[in-house]
Amino acid sequence: MTKELHVRIPATSANLGSGFDAIGLALNLYNDMYFTEDPAADTIAIEVEGEGVGEISTDFDENLVGKSMRAAAVRNQRALPQGGRLRLVNRIPTSRGLGSSSAAIVGGILIGNQLTGGGLSRQDILTLATLIEGHPDNVAPAICGGLAVSVLADGKTLTNSIPIEEGLSFITVSPEIYVSTDMARKALPKTIAYQSAVFNVSRVSYLVSSFIMKRYDTLQYGLEDRLHVPYRLKLIPGGAAVLQAALAAGAAGATISGSGSTLIAFATGCEAAIKDAMIGAFAAQGIRAVGHILKCDNTGAVIL
Ligand code: HSE
Predict the structure, then answer these.
(1) Do 145 and 31 belong together in one domain?
(2) What is the CATH classification number for the domain harbouring 121?
(3) Whether the predicted pLDDT of 200 surpasses 70
(4) Band of the pLDDT at 180, cuts 50, 70, 90?
(5) Where mainly located (predicted)?
(6) Which residue of 25, 147, 163, 224 has the smallest Cβ count within 10 Å?
């Protein structure tokens, strides 16, 4: 019997307000992918369990995991097995700003690479995943773990990953509102004022230094953003009230996770109260939401 290949990929929260398209955080909520080769079959059959059942294509050529497996095989100049079974056990909500697409891309590349000789280095995987996703801020933490700070330079994605301590919690609340990244990017202006650029440079620098220094009392200032949050909050009914509710319940900061619709709060206590307050504020708008109290994953995707 052929050995099963198992990979586990963390959820991610990109941007963290001021770090648009540049920073992201890995979270301890995971998708698992299992691949088994079947020499008797001539296609790779996909099964989806959990989040995204009925929404995610099970056609290997359409599925993002399948496409990413193929991309890795092309890079390795080797063919994928003709037949097999790919089981996707999804816990990351789809299209809600928690990195479900990047988990699919990273998991697909890792499986594809393993099946075609393993020639891709971590650096190659980072760069290929960014090429498929279009920006590095979800794929980099999914690969490296921690708070991943990335730049695109010399045709590569260069990432520094900063470990985040257990003492800081991340409360994610995902409403039943789907905001595709595409839709959320179309909501952005084409240009911004020079002062807004300066504002964001100071905020994101302050944010990253707050994490490094483990100084959370003024974290909220580092999360402030003028590039995307003001435009995207309008796509999330009740979003501003939910962020206020998180702060009132004791959060050190709160913002949109990725391009939404999930909102994320940062806390060193009162986690359950913050989660309940955020869910309650969505409920006041007649919107159901699911919450998680999470920690940072400092490892990134693993082959088990
Ligand atoms: N940086 C991306 C965005 C993350 O905000 O559009 C979402 O994929």
Answers:
(1) yes
(2) 3.30.230.10
(3) yes
(4) confident
(5) cytoplasm
(6) 163
